[in-house]
Amino acid sequence: MLWLGIISFAGLGALLIVATQISERMGRLSAFLHPQSTKDDAGLQQMQALIAWGSGGIDGLGLGNGRQKMLYLPYAHTDFIFPIIGEELGLRFSLLVVFLFVVIIVCGIMIALHAKDRFGLLLGCGVISLLALQAAVNIGVTTSLLPNKGLPLPFISYGGSNLVACMFGVGLLLNIYRQGVLEPARQQNATMRVRTTPRI
After folding, report:
1. 119 domain residue, yes or no
2. How far apart are CA 29 and CA 19, in angstroms?
3. How far is the C-alpha of 64 from the C-alpha of 117, rounded, in Å?
4. Is the pTM above the cut of 0.85?
5. pLDDT by residue (tens digit) across 123-170?
6. Domain containing residue 174
7. What is the distance, to the nearest Å, from the Cα of residue 81 to the centroid of all Cα atoms in its chain?
8. In this structure, are residues 84 and 68 in contact, taking their beta carbons and an 8 Å threshold?
9. Structural contact between residues 124 and 108, judged by C-beta atoms closer than 8 angstroms
10. CB–CB of 52/66 below 8 Å?
11. Does residue 16 form part of some domain?
């Protein structure tokens, strides 16, 4: 157990060394830590996202009435779509989007736990972890809780490859659900029908 702690601290130290050696990552980290001083350079997206959140308020400006997407917030249709949702539809709708992601994650975990074998369990956990991590990082970046990473918001951000990958993952989850829950239920119903059929 002691070795695990030592290896973890060594890995964290190596990660910090790698992160400080690359200037682009340091620029993103600096923009995250000091957004006001880098608002015209690396922190532009973070500051414009905060302005979008602030101008949207609780109820939003109305669908299509957002101002930050008009050349103020870069990549407003891809990586930073969540602040535009907050600006146009308000905090309530943004919290609804977060709630829907939580529902997807919980349903995915339940599907993975009801898989018929270990492969289905691991595959379901992997798919739902990918979707959950991607959504959490995007929401964290667009609300300035995390440094800018460049991950799209699953199912919402513009881009065909991300949407295809997310739909492929949901298809895998539905297949795991079919094999682990629906088919055993059908077999059980079929055996119960055979048992309850009266003999003539």
Report:
1. yes
2. 9
3. 47
4. no
5. 999 999 999 999 999 999 888 888 887 788 999 888 788 899 999 999
6. 43-196
7. 13
8. yes
9. yes
10. yes
11. no
